[in-house]
Amino acid sequence: MHAEENGQKPNVATEKDLEIEEPQKQHEQKGVGEMIMQLCLLACFMTFGPMLIMTNKHLMKDVGYDFPITHTFYTSAFCASAVWIYVLLTGTKLKKAPIVTREFYLKNIMPIGFFQGATIVLGMSSYLYLTVAFAQMLKAAGPVLIVVVLRFFGMSIPTNKVLAAVGVIVLGTVLSGYGEMNFSIIGVCTMMGAQVSEAFRLVMSQKLLNNLKFDVLEGLCYITPAAAFWVLLAALFVEAPRMNWDTLDLVKENWHFFVMSGMFAIGVNTINACVIKFTSSLMLKLLSTARAASLVLFNFFFMGEMVTGVQFCGYSISLAGFLLYNVYRK
What we know:
It is found in: Membrane. The protein contains 12 helices and no strands.
């Protein structure tokens, strides 16, 4: 017996129902796609950074290529060349090109390039004096510097709870340094200098990418050449005078590590810009802290680096403070 004969309406979707269901399906598909993209972004972020750090550490300490500024220029120039070759070959149009005047570039891009170059140079130099594990522990102080820089630019006023969390991070960082068996004041100063530069770079990059609506590719196109320029100036005055033919032989013998470093640098710059663009500078710092913690454990268990009990306690306190910092900032 038919449904109509029983007084029931046929179970047929009307055009109105279909119009409602279609956007819902599209929204669900979009949500799944965004989730997959975020997972891929996270996987790349957690991989490229540590690989770049370990490759550079190998070149600096094991190979003996103690020219961190020159190496930073190489990786920055490598990234800039790769990005611009991609733009030219694909015919990609840079939407913000009309507003990037000489004055705009000098005022907004060059400072970011300076701090990006300083971050890489100082961070790389620290591995000449510190273990990878201890260097990563010092990076836990990053949120402290983020708070200071945000306050400096008038973008955020920290609450008492945020300041308390920052105090916990500082305490943990001090304990980590106290427990380091191979403590180096030069290494600590260079790493903290790198963290200060990183804080300025993150805040200024967020302003450029989000507030001025630059996309990721445009940010890389303009920032990486600026970073390469600043680092080249430093390399010419500081390291070039002590280079000789033995330096060139060292590069020839280990060319594959230099290529790997350049490729990982492209990945790191691209992923960092993507994270800042789609989230914030704070989220980048959160992910960086998680990545640093995993790198500490990796070097302790697999690379034979010593981590004392005091260091472990101090680093745990820093991570707890960082967790509180993110809770109280919401």
